[in-house]
Structure formats: C-alpha cells, structure tokens
C-alpha cells in the first residue's frame, strides 16, 4: 500500500527526503508555545517541577540480569520507565516555560539514558543468531525492540525541540544524542533485515511490534539521519515493512491482538502516517482507504461502555485508551462518528489530565500531536462540562470476518445487552485458547466475562504460556471434553463459521470440535451464540441464547461447561442468577435435568487482574449428569 501494493503510485508517494521536516514548532518558536492555554502550560510546568534536582533511578547490570533469573519484568523496567517519564516531563516543562530552569536536569537525564548499555528491555534481548535470551547485551550488536524504539523517539524529539537551548547550555550533548541514535537505531536498522518485527520473513508473526517500532524509527530517520543516500534507503525499507503490517489486515480492520493493543497497532500506524504526511502530502490519500478506516474504527467497535472493552486476547476489560489518537485519526479520516467517540472518551478519561499519569510509552510525538492539533479537546472538556457528556453511539452489529469476531448490541447508546463472540484459531497474536467463547454485559455491567491477562512475566511468551490459567479454555465460556481443554496452535480452529444479522437476530455459529485434541473424542460440537432483540414483541426485552449440538465418538458423561463471572452467582428457582452492581438481575435458564452446578470462587493475586475485577471472580462449572453420544441443549440469558 505504501510502496506498490495499491493503485497509489509509488512514484507519487515518494518522500522528499531533502524537504524540511518540521511537523511541530520547536521550543524556540515561542509564539506557538505561549499561545497554548494557560491550563495546559501550567500542567506541564508543574509536572516538570516535581523532578527538579531529583536523583535519577539506578539501573545496575544485576538489575538487568534479574529478568532471566526471576522472570519478572518490572524490577528493571519500572526504574527504566521512571527515567524516561522524568525526562519527558522535564522536556515538556522547559518547552512551555523556556527559561532554562529545567535544562540541568534534562542534561542529566539525557546523559543517564545515553550511558545505558542498551535501550532494549531485558525480556526482548534475544540473540539474532541463536534466539537465546541473554542476561546482558552485546554492545556490538544492538537490538531494536519496543523499548529501544520508544527511547530513541524520546531522545530524538528532545533534540528536535530543544536543540538551540541544549547547544547553548551544553554544546556536546546534542552530538552525543545523535551518536547514540546512529549506533543504536540507524545503523542496525539499515544493516539488519532479521529483526522479526520487520516482517520480511513471510513465516514470521506480524503484530503491533511492526508499526510500534517502525513509527519510532521513522521519527529518528526523518530528524537525525543526515546521509541522504542512507536516508532514502532506510525509508524505502521502512515503507516495505509497514506495508507488510497493513497487508496482514483484511478490509474489515479486525485486530486479533485485542483492543488493548490498538494504540500500538493501528494507533502507531497512524503516528507513522502523520510523519509521512508531514514530508509528502500524497500520503493523505491513504486516509481514503476503507481498510485504514476500519483499522481505526476497531477500537470503537470493541467498546462496551463505562471505560470497558471486549477483552479478547491479551486485552483487559478496563482500558485507558489513547483518546487523542482516536480523535486525530478520525479527523484525518473525516469520520464524524469516530471523532465523536474519541472526543467523548477524552472527556470521560479526564481530558488532558490523562497525560499526568501516563508513562513514557505514550511518547512525545503523540503528546505533541495532542498539544498542537487537538487542543480544542482540552478547552472543551473541563470539569465544569462533566454533565454535558453525550451518549457514545456505537454500531449495533459488527462482524469482522478476518478475526471471526461478532459484536451485537441492543441499542446504539449501549443500553441492554452487549454480546461478543469469537471463532478464529488458537495461534493468534497474544492468543488465548478461547474458540467459541463469548462475553455478555447488561447496561455496561459484566454478566459473563473474559478475565483478560495478568502482569507479563517470563512465562507469558514462553513454552509455558498455557500453564497460565487465564490463557486456558477452561477459564473461558468453552467446554472441557473428556478432561481435555482446547489445544494451542493454528491447526486448532473454528470450522463452518457462519454469521448472520437482520436487525432483530444477530447470530454466530461454528463447529468447535477442531479446537480440541484427538483424545477429547468429539466428532462435532456445533455452537450458536445469538442476541435476540425485542423478544415477544417487547422493545428492550432481549435474550442471549447459547445452543450446542454435539456428537462424540463414544458415549460420555465427562463434559463440563464453564461460565466466568465477576459477581458471585446464586441459584434461584432452578436458575443461575447474576446481580449487577447497579441492581439489575440476569438469569440463565437451562435444563436442570442435564447439569449439576458448582460455583467456584477464584481468588486473584495478580495486580493487573485485581485492578479490573477486585479480589475475586467466579467460575461456574456445569457437569453433565448422564452419558450422551449425541444431542443438544440450550441456555438462555434474560433480565429478571
């Protein structure tokens, strides 16, 4: 798409590599910075003042080695993140004030970060030849990962914004910054094709790493690279790499990584497109492409309400999204619905205050884009406007065939049921073994949930991934058959997938048997998940129906159905009942002659899961009472 894969001519879209690249005002251009609202300027100056004369966190070698020894990421990453957060705030404060008050601390921060032996996070320090995880970096072979890209972006934008002030204050500092960017980013990017996230190996996974790394590298190329021949060569390479990412999506824009990764997948692609548009206006034509538009809308399609999202894959049910990126993306697309969604999410998340607690992963490019291009969001979203929040209007029916995800809502305003179900396969990016699973919310309150993912550790992306309970099918709305959970791998997939929606019924049907190993002994497990709106002709009276038709190789009673909930279910009049925090009740009706019910509390100890669900969630296990060879059953969720 960016080179030759569409009707857009690569010649027309070539970059003017010698053109001045000035997407944002530099700090020395005082009219632009002083024209910002006093509230925005004061917020950043106050944030920077917190770090005046503050000691920079220590990052000894043994702390880096700790990840291989313990499998815990945070021991090194947290102080590393704090260094970058401190520098970001100091840089923004100096840009706002521009009196030199923050420069000494900025110099200390830049120097400390430049002194780090690597900018690669310990969890990503793989040897390119052996793929062995190393305890300490090889300085002769720098690794470009997410951490290196983010750090490079922070350093290059610091140099861009404050170059004049820093050269007056410490003439050799900018030279040191450019040296580190050359050695750690530009030279290895030019030299290596083997970074897996470049996606040049057709057998390699393509995911958010591609645009996340490439968008940061692009900023470094455009700002720091002075050799025109190498600059053109790297830009051509980067466009080919980004094309691989865009090509991995289908026209519906479905993302198999879940909404938590939207900001680093489609959102990072937008950041790259904006940089490209700043160099060549021809790239604006990409915003007319239907695929790009649907990639942007994915995050809105997966929204439930009250800050909650459909938490398939390594996502979370509660997210703070990059609302300003959503808004800017929508503005570029001229998509009024998505602009409204971004505006409302921005308001509900606290407006510009959101940046006060954001870590460095939302880099300066994003912050600057918000500061200068969508400051109207800040001006129009003060606390006095809290009562003026508009309803977020969402599509009632969404079907993303590429990832086999259905979303069905009772209303555009989010009242009533929200049902999401998925097919797919068990080798998706950030995969959970969850074919045929679904979630249901009523009035944005959880009824049946996907627990999501806990804090990343060594296990998360290792051969032990599926020893983590949140990744297992037995902790999703899926069956365990003859003691077998679903298996991992691309060959384990939904079959005979069929979707239909007519405005009243929204239904996803599939055969789950292909998700299970041979020893499960299942010949067919046809599952249908549907939202039926206006049951019995009554508006707002909807039902969720789950129907299974099964056939086994031999008669069995060893069948367990699992239902995950955030609230403790109770049994009332032979119905499984959930009460929401707002006082609504949802009952599950089922054949009591077929199923024994066991309600199992699950005590949470992971801080990320606890931040979403509290200390406990619940798994209801329904066990088959009698042996069957074939047959069927139905479950109905309805309001009481």
TrEMBL record:
Residues 421-578 form the Heparinase II/III-like C-terminal domain. InterPro entries: Chondroitin_lyas (IPR008929), Hepar_II_III_C (IPR012480). It is found in: Cell envelope. Gene3D superfamilies: 2.70.98.70, Chondroitin AC/alginate lyase (1.50.10.100). This is Heparinase.
């Amino acid at each position: 798409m960016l080179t030759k894969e569409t009707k857009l001519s690569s010649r027309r879209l070539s970059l003017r590599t010698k053109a001045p690249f000035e997407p944002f005002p530099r700090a020395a251009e005082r009219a632009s910075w002083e024209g910002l609202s006093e509230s925005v300027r004061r917020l950043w100056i106050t944030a920077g003042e917190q770090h005046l004369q503050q000691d920079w966190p220590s990052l000894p070698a043994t702390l880096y080695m700790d990840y291989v020894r313990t499998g815990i990421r945070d021991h090194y990453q947290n102080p590393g993140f704090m260094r970058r957060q401190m520098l970001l705030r100091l840089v923004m404060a100096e840009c706002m004030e521009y009196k030199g008050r923050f420069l000494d601390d900025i110099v200390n921060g830049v120097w400390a970060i430049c002194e780090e032996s690597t900018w690669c996070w310990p969890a990503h320090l793989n040897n390119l030849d052996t793929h062995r995880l190393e305890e300490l970096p090889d300085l002769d072979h720098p690794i470009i990962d997410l951490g290196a890209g983010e750090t490079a972006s922070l350093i290059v934008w610091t140099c861009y914004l404050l170059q004049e002030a820093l050269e007056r204050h410490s003439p050799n500092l900018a030279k040191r910054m450019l040296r580190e960017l050359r050695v750690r980013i530009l030279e290895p990017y030019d030299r290596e094709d083997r970074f897996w996230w470049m996606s040049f190996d057709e057998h390699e996974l393509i995911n958010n790493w591609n645009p996340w790394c490439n968008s940061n590298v692009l900023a470094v190329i455009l700002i720091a690279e002075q050799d025109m021949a190498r600059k053109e060569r790297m830009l051509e390479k980067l466009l080919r790499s980004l094309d691989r990412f865009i090509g991995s999506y289908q026209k519906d824009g479905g993302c198999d990584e879940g909404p938590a990764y939207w900001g680093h997948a489609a959102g990072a692609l937008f950041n790259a497109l904006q940089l490209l548009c700043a160099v060549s206006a021809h790239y604006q034509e990409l915003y007319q492409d239907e695929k790009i538009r649907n990639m942007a809308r994915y995050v809105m399609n997966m929204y439930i309400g009250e800050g909650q999202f459909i938490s398939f894959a390594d996502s979370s049910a509660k997210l703070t999204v990059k609302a300003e990126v959503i808004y800017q993306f929508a503005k570029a697309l001229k998509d009024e619905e998505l602009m409204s969604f971004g505006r409302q999410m921005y308001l509900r998340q606290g407006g510009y205050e959101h940046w006060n607690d954001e870590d460095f992963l939302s880099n300066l490019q994003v912050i600057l884009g918000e500061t200068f291009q969508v400051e109207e969001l800040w001006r129009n979203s003060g606390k006095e406007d809290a009562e003026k929040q508009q309803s977020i209007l969402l599509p009632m029916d969404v079907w993303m065939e590429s990832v086999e995800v259905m979303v069905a809502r009772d209303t555009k305003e989010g009242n009533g049921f929200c049902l999401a179900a998925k097919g797919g396969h068990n080798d998706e990016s950030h995969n959970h073994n969850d074919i045929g699973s679904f979630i249901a919310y009523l009035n944005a309150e959880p009824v049946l949930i996907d627990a999501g993912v806990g804090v990343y550790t060594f296990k998360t992306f290792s051969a032990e991934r599926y020893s983590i309970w949140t990744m297992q099918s037995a902790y999703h709305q899926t069956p365990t058959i003859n003691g077998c959970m679903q298996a991992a791998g691309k060959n384990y997939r939904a079959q005979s997938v069929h979707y239909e929606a007519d405005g009243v019924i929204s239904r996803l049907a599939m055969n789950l048997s292909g998700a299970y190993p041979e020893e499960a002994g299942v010949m067919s497990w046809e599952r249908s998940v549907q939202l039926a709106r206006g049951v019995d002709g009554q508006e707002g009276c909807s039902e969720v129906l789950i129907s299974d038709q099964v056939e086994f190789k031999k008669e069995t009673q060893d069948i367990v159905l699992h239902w995950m909930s955030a609230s403790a279910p109770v049994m009332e009049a032979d119905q499984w009942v959930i009460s929401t925090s707002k006082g609504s009740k949802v009952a599950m009706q089922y054949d009591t002659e077929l199923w024994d019910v066991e309600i199992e509390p699950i005590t949470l100890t992971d801080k990320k899961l606890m931040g979403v669900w509290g200390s406990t969630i619940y798994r209801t296990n329904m066990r088959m009472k009698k042996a069957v060879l074939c047959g069927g059953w139905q479950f109905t969720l309805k309001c009481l």
